[in-house]
Structure formats: C-alpha cells, structure tokens
Design a protein that fits this description.
This protein is α/β, with parallel strands linked by helices and 240 residues long. 28% of the residues lie in helices and 21% in strands.
Amino acid sequence: MYKKKRILAIIAARSGSKSIRDKNLSKINGKTLLEWIISKALNSKYIDKIYVSTDSSKYKKLSNRYGAYCPKLRPKNISGGNSTEIEYISHTLNVLKEKNFYPDYIVRLQPTSPFQTTKDIDNSIKKIVNNKNATSLQVVSESSQSPLKALQLYKKKYLKPYFYSNSNNEVLNRQKLKKSYYRSNIIISKTKNILKNKTQIGKRSLIYLIPSNRSIDINDRYDLEVAKMINKKFGFLKNV
C-alpha cells in the first residue's frame, strides 16, 4: 500500500499462444517467464495483492506455488486472441469484489516482458498516485523509428507513406521528427476510471521511460532467443 491506496497487480497469462506452446512457461536463466514476473511483483513495496488471470489449470497451479493469488480460471469466452484487456480486468475485479477487496490502482503486468524491474513498478506506482489528475501510467521506451516513416503498399506493387503524402513521397529527415514511444508493457490504471469509462488508458496517461534493452516483448521464438542473448550480456534476470 502506498499513501493508503490499495494496489492490485494483475498478471495476464493466457495459455493459447500460437507462436510458442506455453510461451509463459518458457525459461530464461532457469526460471519460467511466469515465475520471473511474479517474483518482481512480490518484491514490490507497494503492491497489496498479486492476481494471475489465466485460463490454464497448469498456470493456476504454478501461480499459487510461486506466491501469487489465482482462485479461479478466466472464462474461455474472454481468453481468446481477440479478447480485450478490459474483459479480464473486469472479471478479476468481480472475483475480488466477492472477497471484499477493492483496489484503487491496477498494475497490469505480463510474463512476456521479463526485463522490467521491481524498481520500475514501484517508481511508476509512486508517480501516478502523486498525480491526482492522471488516469493511467504507461512504461515506455523511445522508438528507433518514427511512425511517420512507415510505408504501405498500394496497387499491390508500389510503396507510399502510411500516414502522409507529398508530391514526390520524399524521405522525411529523422532529426526533424518528434520523438515517438512504444509501450513496454507495464500499465497502471486508476480503477475508478476503468469502472466509469470502461477504458484502461484514459485521456491523461503519464510516461515512465525505460531503456530499449529492457523493453523486449516476447512474442515468438526469435524474441525468446534475443531475450536470452540480452540477458546473457546484461544479466537482467539473476537468481538470488
């Protein structure tokens, strides 16, 4: 608890990944991705409860063994590839309502982003709790490419800019473009805003910047191998 605010961590860990079977149980440095993220949350000074939202009995059993709280499975109808985060967050809040636990803030975490730290979590919590107007906070990294440099195909063979056009489709000078950012998968939301507006982010989302070498999101086997190499070089995941 921070400044008398109840803080809930929700770790999203559905089992239906098509790129890697049981992706959340992939191992780096001897531990599963699920165990790593639970351990980061357990070491937080401010998180009051760690809830794992999963559709897998195996994940449920492991989550409880690792020290998280997973009393029931996420329904199948909100566990598909097209299901939204608001759906499983709402399901979690309804489960905890039965236990008389009403969080002020929700910290959404994912096993597939293993290099984010307990320090990231705690500093992010402090930042949003100390800003009464913020609806959310997103942990991000600076993008190496501006979205304004993206291209799209037209007439099935020609390239043109995705977001703008000029007479000759000239290349934009990178130094003249505003900095852009991509989400690194910690999102902290104010619960009142979720319940009232049915939105996880809202109109006033704070920034918490981390370096790009800690921002990997593991989606496939290539990402997993890259993550292992990054960890070998920088030692982000250490057994203590």
